[in-house]
Design a protein that fits this description.
145 residues; three-stranded antiparallel beta sheet; alpha+beta; Archease, Possible Chaperone, Chain: A, domain 1
Protein backbone atom coordinates (compact mmCIF):
# COMPACT_ATOMS: atom_id res chain seq x y z
CA UNK A 1 0.00 0.00 0.00
CA UNK A 2 1.42 3.38 -0.93
CA UNK A 3 1.76 6.25 1.55
CA UNK A 4 -1.23 8.21 0.17
CA UNK A 5 -3.50 5.16 0.46
CA UNK A 6 -2.40 4.43 4.04
CA UNK A 7 -2.95 8.07 5.04
CA UNK A 8 -6.43 8.03 3.46
CA UNK A 9 -7.51 5.02 5.51
CA UNK A 10 -9.55 6.08 8.51
CA UNK A 11 -12.78 5.72 10.43
CA UNK A 12 -15.09 8.29 11.93
CA UNK A 13 -18.40 8.69 13.71
CA UNK A 14 -21.28 10.93 12.72
CA UNK A 15 -24.23 11.84 14.91
CA UNK A 16 -27.75 10.67 14.21
CA UNK A 17 -30.50 11.41 16.76
CA UNK A 18 -30.06 8.99 19.69
CA UNK A 19 -27.98 6.55 17.63
CA UNK A 20 -24.48 6.73 16.14
CA UNK A 21 -23.22 6.72 12.58
CA UNK A 22 -20.13 4.70 11.70
CA UNK A 23 -18.09 5.42 8.60
CA UNK A 24 -15.05 3.69 7.15
CA UNK A 25 -12.89 5.24 4.45
CA UNK A 26 -10.16 3.47 2.51
CA UNK A 27 -8.38 3.05 -0.79
CA UNK A 28 -10.38 -0.14 -1.44
CA UNK A 29 -13.90 -1.28 -0.68
CA UNK A 30 -12.42 -3.91 1.65
CA UNK A 31 -10.41 -1.27 3.55
CA UNK A 32 -13.56 0.84 3.96
CA UNK A 33 -15.41 -2.19 5.41
CA UNK A 34 -12.51 -2.84 7.80
CA UNK A 35 -12.51 0.78 8.93
CA UNK A 36 -16.32 0.76 9.36
CA UNK A 37 -15.90 -2.26 11.67
CA UNK A 38 -13.25 -0.38 13.63
CA UNK A 39 -15.61 2.62 13.91
CA UNK A 40 -18.30 0.24 15.18
CA UNK A 41 -16.02 -1.05 17.94
CA UNK A 42 -14.87 2.48 18.76
CA UNK A 43 -18.48 3.33 19.67
CA UNK A 44 -18.01 0.89 22.56
CA UNK A 45 -14.41 1.55 23.63
CA UNK A 46 -11.04 2.83 22.46
CA UNK A 47 -9.77 0.12 20.06
CA UNK A 48 -6.22 0.75 21.31
CA UNK A 49 -7.26 -0.88 24.60
CA UNK A 50 -8.25 -4.16 22.87
CA UNK A 51 -5.68 -6.89 22.33
CA UNK A 52 -6.11 -8.84 19.06
CA UNK A 53 -5.76 -12.24 20.76
CA UNK A 54 -8.80 -14.22 19.54
CA UNK A 55 -9.73 -14.69 15.87
CA UNK A 56 -13.36 -14.75 14.70
CA UNK A 57 -14.18 -15.52 11.05
CA UNK A 58 -17.40 -14.68 9.26
CA UNK A 59 -18.81 -15.22 5.79
CA UNK A 60 -21.62 -13.05 4.43
CA UNK A 61 -23.47 -12.96 1.13
CA UNK A 62 -25.68 -10.15 -0.16
CA UNK A 63 -27.05 -8.80 -3.41
CA UNK A 64 -25.30 -5.44 -3.04
CA UNK A 65 -22.48 -3.74 -1.14
CA UNK A 66 -24.82 -1.87 1.21
CA UNK A 67 -26.54 -5.02 2.47
CA UNK A 68 -23.16 -6.74 2.67
CA UNK A 69 -21.94 -3.98 5.00
CA UNK A 70 -24.97 -4.36 7.28
CA UNK A 71 -24.54 -8.15 7.34
CA UNK A 72 -20.81 -7.80 8.17
CA UNK A 73 -21.40 -5.34 11.00
CA UNK A 74 -24.33 -7.33 12.40
CA UNK A 75 -22.23 -10.52 12.39
CA UNK A 76 -19.61 -8.70 14.47
CA UNK A 77 -22.27 -7.30 16.82
CA UNK A 78 -23.74 -10.78 17.26
CA UNK A 79 -20.35 -12.26 18.12
CA UNK A 80 -19.59 -9.45 20.56
CA UNK A 81 -22.93 -9.95 22.29
CA UNK A 82 -22.89 -13.76 22.38
CA UNK A 83 -19.32 -14.09 23.62
CA UNK A 84 -18.74 -10.73 25.37
CA UNK A 85 -16.06 -9.97 22.78
CA UNK A 86 -14.67 -6.71 21.49
CA UNK A 87 -12.54 -6.39 18.39
CA UNK A 88 -9.69 -4.13 17.30
CA UNK A 89 -8.30 -5.57 14.05
CA UNK A 90 -10.04 -6.64 10.84
CA UNK A 91 -9.29 -8.17 7.44
CA UNK A 92 -11.95 -8.36 4.70
CA UNK A 93 -12.05 -9.85 1.22
CA UNK A 94 -15.02 -9.29 -1.08
CA UNK A 95 -15.76 -11.10 -4.35
CA UNK A 96 -19.00 -11.61 -6.27
CA UNK A 97 -21.26 -10.46 -3.43
CA UNK A 98 -19.47 -12.60 -0.87
CA UNK A 99 -17.51 -11.25 2.07
CA UNK A 100 -15.01 -13.22 4.10
CA UNK A 101 -14.01 -11.33 7.20
CA UNK A 102 -11.62 -11.90 10.02
CA UNK A 103 -11.82 -10.02 13.29
CA UNK A 104 -9.32 -10.19 16.13
CA UNK A 105 -10.09 -9.14 19.66
CA UNK A 106 -10.55 -10.34 23.20
CA UNK A 107 -13.14 -10.96 25.89
CA UNK A 108 -14.37 -7.58 27.15
CA UNK A 109 -13.02 -6.63 30.56
CA UNK A 110 -15.11 -3.71 31.85
CA UNK A 111 -12.42 -2.50 34.25
CA UNK A 112 -9.91 -2.17 31.40
CA UNK A 113 -12.10 -1.44 28.36
CA UNK A 114 -14.57 0.96 30.03
CA UNK A 115 -17.41 0.20 27.58
CA UNK A 116 -19.50 3.29 26.85
CA UNK A 117 -22.57 1.66 25.25
CA UNK A 118 -23.83 -1.61 23.84
CA UNK A 119 -24.41 -1.61 20.10
CA UNK A 120 -27.65 -3.44 19.30
CA UNK A 121 -27.46 -3.55 15.52
CA UNK A 122 -26.46 -1.99 12.23
CA UNK A 123 -29.39 -0.35 10.42
CA UNK A 124 -30.32 0.68 6.90
CA UNK A 125 -30.35 4.33 7.98
CA UNK A 126 -27.76 6.47 6.14
CA UNK A 127 -26.52 3.22 4.55
CA UNK A 128 -24.08 3.94 1.72
CA UNK A 129 -21.12 2.20 0.10
CA UNK A 130 -19.54 4.15 -2.73
CA UNK A 131 -16.32 5.18 -4.40
CA UNK A 132 -15.64 8.93 -4.24
CA UNK A 133 -14.42 10.87 -7.30
CA UNK A 134 -10.95 10.91 -5.69
CA UNK A 135 -10.91 7.10 -5.74
CA UNK A 136 -11.46 6.52 -2.02
CA UNK A 137 -14.20 4.17 -0.84
CA UNK A 138 -16.70 5.03 1.90
CA UNK A 139 -18.82 2.50 3.81
CA UNK A 140 -21.27 3.86 6.37
CA UNK A 141 -24.49 3.29 8.28
CA UNK A 142 -26.16 4.16 11.56
CA UNK A 143 -25.94 1.68 14.42
CA UNK A 144 -28.58 1.35 17.10
CA UNK A 145 -27.12 1.95 20.57
Amino acid sequence: MNLAASLARRWEHFEHAADMGVRGIGATREAAFEEAALALCAVITDPALVRPDILFEVDCHATDDELLLVDWLNALISEMSAHRMIFSKFAVTISDGRLHGRAWGEIAVPARHHPAVEVKGATLTELKVFQNPDGLWTAQCVVDV
